[in-house]
Amino acid sequence: MGVGAIAKPAFVTTQFGILELTPAGCSDGILFTVAAALVGMAAGRLISAAVDRSIDRAPLGYFVLEVVVAVMLLAVACCRESEAAGT
């Protein structure tokens, strides 16, 4: 399957009887999981900065990026959840 899997991932999944890549209701869980991973990485950077008693420019930039993307993912997941509930 090799290169064909890159062009048509659905072709690969149908070989195993999987018709959808993301089952219904699974995308919110994926968003929460990725957001939690980003928050964990940002927390690790904070702990590292506390231990080192300094933070360089690059780790600070990554920290800000991780926090911003995590907040955006959580906002999207919460908005989708509230839309599904009808509010």
Sequence-ordered SSE layout with sheet pairings:
Layout: H1 2-7, H2 9-15, H3 27-52, H4 57-85
Helix pairs in contact: 3-4
Describe the structure.
The mean pLDDT is 81. The protein is an all-alpha fold. It has four helices and no strands. The chain is elongated and about 55 Å long. The protein has helices at residues 2-7, 9-15, 27-52, 57-85. Helix 3 (27-52) runs antiparallel to helix 4.
Number of helices: 4
Number of strands: 0
Tell me about the largest β-sheet: none
Please report which band the strand proportion falls in: under 5%, 5-15%, 15-25%, 25-35%, 35-45% or over 45%.
Answer: under 5%
Gyration radius, in Å: 18 Å
The quaternary state of the protein chains shown equals single chain
Indicate the overall shape.
elongated
Which regions have little confidence, pLDDT < 50, spanning 5+ residues?
none
The separation of the N and C termini measures 45 Å
Mean pLDDT metric: 81
Order of helices and strands: HHHH
- The helix/strand class is mainly alpha
What level of helicity do the residues show? over 70%
